[in-house]
Amino acid sequence: MNGPFSMRQEGPATEHIRHGEVRIAASPDACFSTILGSCVATILWDPERGVGGMNHLLLPPRALATPREQGPEVNLLELLINGVVAAGAERQRLRAKIFGGARMLDGRGSTGDANVAFVEGFLREEGIACVAASTGGRQARRLRAWPAFGRVQQLRLRERDAARLALETGTKADGARKLSGVELL
Questions:
Q1: β-bridge partners, 97
Q2: Which residues are catalytic?
Q3: Which of 60, 65, 67, 79 is nearest to 21 (CA)?
């Protein structure tokens, strides 16, 4: 794919993360990508050990009182934390960045808002600092992350670009409104 929304890189292949997946990396060359609408991706890393990981989650359409009452979503965050620690990170040094949670459909309530609140609450309960976030809005996002360093490149997508990327990666992505550029966080 070429064009202004292309996020190709030279070097090792980028591994795409789909909904419900977690990946861990201890290599500085490891690069993960994902496409987010109302879903949320969490990047977690230990800045001293150079170990990190990323997940991609979406809450089911149910309202529960606390993050601990959720099922598989808690597991995705626990798998991320435990995987990064098992790869050599020190739990007390873990840092997080969160992305996604867009309002992709008009109507009452927002699945994206609920997803963001869930992840923020979980990180708070676990005592993990969220040092950056790009959440909400009405645009889908495409991310590339180098989790060993906590480095993330974000591209906000137009509706047609989000749909084309979803077809190319096999990921369901709801439409967004406009292309606003690349951000490094």
A1: 43, 132
A2: 39
A3: 79
Beta strands (DSSP E) in the chain are 14-16, 22-25, 31-36, 40-46, 51-57, 95-100, 129-135, 140-146, 151-158, 177-184
Q: What phi-psi label fits residue 160: left (phi over 0), alpha (psi between -120 and 50 degrees) or beta? A: alpha
pTM: 0.77
The helix/strand/coil state of 53 is strand
Lowest mean pLDDT among 54-58, 92-96, 159-163: 159-163
Give phi and psi for 93, each to the nearest 5: -100, 0
Collect all residues with Cβ–Cβ distance below 8 Å to 62 and sequence separation of at least 6.
Answer: none
pLDDT score of 64 more than 50: no
Of 34, 135, 128, 121, the C-alpha closest to 70 is: 121
Write down the pLDDT at residue 73: 56
Q: Which residues contact 93 (CB under 8 A, 6 or more apart)?
A: 46, 47, 48, 49
Token pair in block for residue 77: 């965050």
Taking alpha carbons only, the member of 123, 124, 155 closest to residue 55 is: 123
d(CA 173, CA 162): 6
CA distance 112 to 116: 6
Residue spans of beta strands (DSSP E) within 37-128: 40-46, 51-57, 95-100
C-alpha triplet 109, 114, 118: angle, nearest 5° = 165
